[in-house]
Amino acid sequence: FINRDLKDQLHLMGVNIGFAFIAGSAVIICTDFESITKDRHTCVVLGTLLQFFYGALGFWGVAIGHASFRAITRGVIGGNLIPACMMCWGVSLLLTGIPFIEFLEDLGTDPRCFISWENVPKYPILHTTNSLLNLLNVLRNCYSYQSINTSTQEGKSNR
Fold it and tell me: Where are the transmembrane segments (predicted)?
């Protein structure tokens, strides 16, 4: 299934993004049926799958963005898939397990089968995603500031 030439490019990361998106969308469609969402245990399963696949989708977006940046700036194309798989699916699995450890009583109470009707069980996935985006934003701003200062100082030395 995994061709060596295809593995060295970024296509298989896109396949993982597509799989996570399609699986998450299928779970969302399942939560539209009232007969499925009436049972609390089924709601817990759907909420867990929803959190897992959309969490993985977010991490895969970051991973393919990083891999594309490395490919454009450094020419590094291969060697990203296995570490990205471990990071994206693994961190998403860890974030999915936190509500089961901390908030087991609250799971399955949301009418649309998200994580919980209460806000506190939603914090691990939402705050982690928000913190990751804020960190990437700070790094992007630092990189932009450094490149602006470098180009400004080069312009002064050429005068």
Answer: 12-31, 43-69, 81-104
